[in-house]
Specification:
With about 425 residues, the protein is mostly helical. It is about 70% helix and about 0% strand.
Length: about 425
């Protein structure tokens, strides 16, 4: 359970430091608009995304079991965070995140890192695609610039409300969104190692500011971003409140644990390394505790940012620490500039993030899987979209484990008629 940074620093040199610093800056440029967009999509103030990237991202790199893992707020949490805030308020989310951190610390202490292997892959794929669908539909309002007082949380009600508001379409907003998407895709293909994402959002947001188009920005909707981190504070809690939020905390802990370990495994394949799963769980627990104390969002290892770190040349957890420090520097020095980011540009970014989350290159392979695995994937997907993430994960994992036992030909129980 030893943090990876302690191992890597034994042979650390100047060349590695330069590589880590350059990679950390690159990842920060990617994480900055993503963190803001994820916070907004979750129903939280935008600065909460930056707080999470700084505090949780730094702790995950400092204490984690992967050489190159980058942590922070991720799209996987949008659905559950939005639901917790809607039902229990933002203070309820902070307490749920704190509880999730404690659950992850306990899981790491009892060496539960290997238990991810018991979660059926179709369940992971199903709720990932389901989350992607929910994220994409939640951004329709902003990318089309629709005028709506409130967007319902329930999926079919949301679609109905969006359709009812179709006549309020804002053409400049749609144009900004489409151009942003086109620029992100083009820059990513032309310069894979370059943080084209921040360039695309900056260019289209700059056009909105210069031309004066009637398009919402972070500043116009939420006001000025704060210059610095808030003071740490312990959330209010009671036994009744803890019991009320326990199911949400368990879901947050589950998502944080699964996504961080999946991300670490992806990183292992990219660098030919081997992560320490229990150290990773402990780091996720500490990161979520830290994020909650500073009023941030739930955090986990981010697969896209971790892959960006590897492609940019990151070698050790120092790159993740640099990434957190750069975002903090931007918050201290350039927070007003971040306020000019256009909402349709951030919506375009999240829609592309949702598309990538769904991993469309793997869809043909799903049709070649067993029928039972296909059913499990579709069931988890549908429950994630139309019901509740807690229900989707619970039903999916239970059915998946039952199918696994059936395939292993576990003998049926011998029932006898009770003697009454």
């Amino acid at each position: 359970m030893k943090p990876k940074i302690l191992t890597t620093l034994k042979t650390y040199d100047r060349q590695t430091l330069v590589a880590d610093v350059l990679a950390g800056i690159t990842v920060a440029m990617v994480a900055l608009p993503l963190s803001l967009a994820i916070a907004i999509a979750s129903g939280a103030p935008p600065e909460k995304g930056l707080v999470t990237a700084i505090v949780a991202g730094g702790l995950i790199s400092a204490l984690g079991g992967s050489r190159v893992q980058i942590g922070g707020p991720t799209g996987a949490f949008i659905v559950v965070v939005f639901g917790v805030i809607a039902e229990h308020g933002y203070d309820g989310l902070v307490l749920a995140t704190l509880m999730a951190g404690a659950i992850l610390l306990i899981a790491g202490f009892f060496r539960a890192g290997r238990l991810i292997q018991l979660v059926p892959e179709p369940v992971i794929n199903g709720f990932t695609i389901g989350i992607a669908v929910v994220i994409a539909t939640s951004q329709i309002k902003d990318i089309f610039g629709l005028s709506m007082h409130e967007v319902p949380a329930e999926f079919f009600e949301k679609l109905s409300a969006l359709w009812a508001a179709r006549e309020t379409l804002n053409i400049p907003a749609l144009g900004i969104g489409l151009v942003t998407m086109g620029l992100i895709v083009a820059l990513r293909r032309a310069f894979p190692r370059f943080p084209g994402l921040i360039v695309a959002v900056a260019l289209t947001s700059g056009a909105v500011a210069l031309i004066g188009w009637p398009v919402d920005t972070i500043q116009s909707r939420f006001g000025d971003l704060p210059r610095g981190l808030p003071a740490p504070a312990w959330p209010d809690m009671s036994l009744a409140r803890l019991g009320e939020l326990l199911p949400s905390a368990v879901v947050i802990a589950f998502l944080a644990g699964v996504e961080s370990l999946l991300s670490a495994m992806v990183a292992d394949r990219m660098i030919g390394g081997r992560h320490r799963p229990n150290a990773e769980l402990l780091a996720q627990g500490a990161a979520n505790l830290g994020s909650a104390l500073f009023g941030g969002l739930p955090a986990t290892g981010a697969i896209a940012r971790t892959a960006t770190n590897v492609r940019a040349g990151g070698k050790t957890p120092v790159a993740g620490l640099v990434h957190a420090a750069v975002i903090l520097l931007v918050m201290l020095v350039a927070a007003p500039l971040a306020g000019f980011m256009a909402m349709p540009a951030l919506a375009a970014l999240l829609i592309l993030t949702a598309w990538n989350m769904s991993e469309p290159h793997r869809w043909p392979g799903y049709f070649r899987e067993r029928r039972s695995d296909q059913f499990l994937l579709v069931l988890t997907l549908v429950l994630t979209v139309v019901a509740d993430l807690t229900v989707a994960i619970g039903v999916g994992v239970a059915l998946g484990l039952a199918l696994r036992l059936r395939r292993r030909d576990v003998p049926a129980s011998e029932w006898e008629t009770p003697d009454r």
